[in-house]
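Subject: sequence -> structure tokens, single chain

Hey, anyone have a minute? Need the predicted structure for the following. Not urgent.
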Amino acid sequence: MAREEYTIAALWMEGPLSYLEQLCLKSFIDAGHHVRLYHYGPLQNVPDGIELASADDILPRTDFLQHNRTGSPALHSDLFRYRLLSMSEKTIWADTDAYCALPFRTKSGHFYGWESDVNVNGGVLGLPQDSDTLGALLEYTRDEFAIPSWYGEKYQRKLQHARDAGQPVHASEQPWGVWGPHALTHFLHETGEIEYAFARHVLYPFSFSDRREMLRPIKNIENYIKPDTASIHFYGRRVRPRLARRNDGLPIPGSVIYDLVKMHGIEPEKAPVPQPKGMQSEKSGGSTMKTANTTPSPLLNLSDLALEFGSDKGPSKHRYTELYQMLLHPFRDQPVNFMEMGLLIGGPEHNVEKDRETKDLPSIRMWLKFFETAQVHGLDISDFSWFEHERFTFHRCDMDKRENIALVAETLPKMDIILDDASHASHHQQYAFLELFDRLKHGGLYIIEDLRWQPPHMERPNFTKTAALFDGFQKSRLFEHSDKALQAELEQVADQISGCFVFQAKYNKKRQDQVAVIHKK
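Reply:
Had a minute. Here:
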């Protein structure tokens, strides 16, 4: 086979490669590319024919950058690929979860593609050395406290205020992807080089939301892979843990990954996807949560706290706290990650402007007192960034666009409890569930409140109500939805649910369904 013109460069920090990384790297060799794998420490299971190179020659490990909330080395990887491309001729970057379906060829030196309707992904990235976009990325990432303009003026003002106060916000504390796809997309637009971006099916035929399709037997592969599809992105940070949990870390027969592994002669049994730290206890039925205090603290009554802080979850209105006292008290003394969506009554669901003035966080104050060591996260369309507490993190998000929820999900640690008390619009509730359930730990709880009321001006015609959706699942363990694409996604989540309970308003069987509790296996 003739050698392809472009060298493929990748980075693996150190340690053994699983069959997934072997598959991706070998696919480029089999397509005729020279592959150069950069690394910092010793490697194992590297396929034959790959050139190894010192990553320190590009970016010293002493400059290692890691995203604080996710622990992801994405910042380091982003900076590494930009520097590498500026120092290398005829080179295209590929993540170790990018598979080569067709040889990578480009006359212009530009090689990248749309991952979604809004973002170009840098998982596969070719930029010529004189690219204006590459120059802008290198210039921007020189300042680790730079203020991004691509998250809107309000976020810019927030970071500027912090800088003016002498507390600039480091890139590791900014949204996941700030130096990656978000910066790349911004500068491609700014320079006009966005015109070179491929259509999504060329490099990202399976979207992020479709990633589970690659892990199970699939019959409609032609819906994804087209004649000019050059790459398949496996979304390794999300897919690897899922592969590790199933079939002893081996690919499922009949799946896309299984068929590709066979085609390239990879032996997955010799290098299964390893289980993440702490997963062994999950598989054996144990909890990954560490107990901060083995002696239970005095019993706090959550209903009393709701009255103290003015939360409508208490006995004065919904009485949810009676249920939560039973469900959540075992978590009280543990360092859990807790998230609530919807932080104050009176938002757009009640025709109130999203930029309303906010002065209180009754439920968040209640949770911070109830969970003595928890990290509490709050999400809302309105601004609550004024509230400061060492154990509280605020995320502003318009849930009407699913991609906004996905962006927040990328910034979250693994959660123990997620509670949806946001707009109550059915599509908001279901989009959030599909994007965030994956962020829930094994044994975690996902709770959706106020199922019997949806804001009329937000609700979509003929869209299945969330109450009906989970009531049906509770009875049959099947999801039925008017939107068949959403139904397919929900069906993929079903095997992760160990139990689902729907409770009526004030626990009166004669009343409408009001709150759903979903337990993750």
